Amino acid sequence: MPLLPEHALFMAPMVDLSHVAYQELVRSFTGCDLVYSEMLNARIVPDENPRTSVYLKWTRLDDLIVQIAGNDPARMRDSAARLDALSPFGIDVNMGCWLKKVTCHGWGAGLMKDPSRAGAVVEAVRKVVNRPLSVKMRIGYSPDRRAMLDFADMLVDAGIDFLVLHARTVQDGMSRRARWEYIAALKEHVKVPVVGNGDVVTPADALDMFQKTGCDGVMVGRQALVKPWIFRDIRALLAGHEPPAPPDLKGVMLHLLDLLSGHFPPDVALKRFKTAMVWLSQNLAFGHHLAKGVSREKTLDGARACIADAFERGIT
Ligand SMILES: Cc1cc2nc3c(=O)[nH]c(=O)nc-3n(C[C@H](O)[C@H](O)[C@H](O)COP(=O)(O)O)c2cc1C
Most buried one in 181, 215, 247, 254, CB count within 10 A? Predict the structure, then answer.
């Protein structure tokens, strides 16, 4: 059986956002094959209490890839072993996060600076992971194609099953357009499946990425926060149909609020809802007013009322 479904679609790992409630929201629209968790800190995963943790939370595991971040092979192995025992679809090692607060510890994309440590991490994790193991990486510190391919070869030799490439360098951060030509180069070079990531904004972009790069899967990050139904629309386009009309946005916002309050303590749910509203409100011409209004609310009921009021008054 192939490792990934044909034209596999993925929701990207996103700190504070790709949590259980957003996963549920995305699943409710269908079309997304595999969802990534937010990155989990390998220093805390081995000791985290699943009954009280706001991170170790899920409703489904068969389509979930849990991402771990760290650079200590033993800690990464222990985290991976604990998560593997829960039977998710897969485990991912974060080698793509470019933020200084992460790379300065040699984590995330920091591992791309130290290939021997990156290899040691993957080898340690591979020993305890009995399911698909992926690495989400960037191009590297500079747009050096050969260096990217050598790094990918090293990961494949260390035992990974597929690769996700966020097609930017570390220096690029989140600016400039993603360099899809590196996804094509990686796909042509490695024998494992390649998932492309970066700047899929519309369903047509996803089709374009499949066509232009030959990638096996497409991962969507920010637009899955703005339009959690985007995977349904990509699926429609892949099948040759027009995407359906967008869902009722107010309903989507309130559904997310309900999901959050069902899964998290009220303070965490409210904080996470405020973070999500920054993205969901981008569907509205004046959505920043609504996001700002919600950000001032002190309770979940207040946030609910703020949204209801905004839509009632048509000031969105
Ligand atoms: C708010 C936010 C949080 C992110 N957190 C993570 C993370 O935890 N792990 C990771 O590998 N990438 C993380 N990323 C990067 C995304 O997974 C993705 O690679 C990036 O947004 C590019 O894809 P896009 O153009 O579809 O958004 C994050 C991105 C954003 C915007």
Answer: 215
Please report, as a single letter, which amino acid is at residue 273.
F
How far apart CA 181 and CA 213 sit, in angstroms, is 7
pTM above 0.90, yes or no: yes
Q: Which of 163, 87, 94 is nearest to 130 (CA)?
A: 87
Domains with residue ranges and CATH for the chain: 8-238 (3.20.20.70), 249-313 (no CATH)
Q: Which of 9, 11, 15, 199 to mutate to test the pocket of ligand 1 (most atoms within 8 A of CB)?
A: 15
* Catalytic residue of the set 32, 97, 215, 306: 97
32-41, 94-103, 194-203, 271-280: least confidently modelled range = 94-103
CA of 314 to the centre of ligand 1 (A): 32
Gap from CA of 49 to ligand 1 centroid (Å): 26
Structure tokens belonging to residue 77:
């192995």
The arithmetic mean of pLDDT across residues 50-74, rounded, is 95
- Is residue 315 very low, low, confident or very high in pLDDT (cuts 50, 70, 90)? low
